[in-house]
Amino acid sequence: MRNFVILSGCSGGGKSTLLAELGRRGHLIVEEPGRRIVAEALAGDGATLPWVDMAAFARRAIEMALADRKAMCAQTGLVFFDRGLLDAIAGLAHATGNATLPREALTCRFNRQVFMTPPWPAIYRNDPERRHGLEDGIAEYERLMAFYPRLGYSPVVLPKTDVAARADFVLTALGA
Fold first, then answer.
1. Do residues 41 and 50 touch, judged by C-beta distance below 8 A?
2. What Gene3D superfamilies does this protein's entry cite (predicted)?
């Protein structure tokens, strides 16, 4: 779906801030499954925390991302996803070592352009839901930069600039 746009990239690179700005400008947004899963797991038994069981976390992220995507199917305007389905699939492949892609990776399509936040040490911060260091975020970024082209997507690296300029960049690239 051309109107479904993925924001991906390095943890702590400003995806959520950009998503909020796009929402402020009137676009539909879908928050990252990972942060919602961590909150859910911390309130429950903790079994799907990424630092407890990365594969269980990724499977839950796939389930949640599929539900998010389904909930947005009737929308005709731009819908911005903070990470989402394909990042979860990449995470599961990394966690399990299984490179076989599930059917959803090929059938649930998004806009060909995937906007990637590059590693940006100046803004990277840990928080209760992001316990890993910048080095892990950089490794994840490199895996995603290799993963998306395998599925026919074009990663577009976002400039390291203020959030308004980043939002302008994304919308201009999309012709919006």
1. no
2. P-loop containing nucleotide triphosphate hydrolases (3.40.50.300)
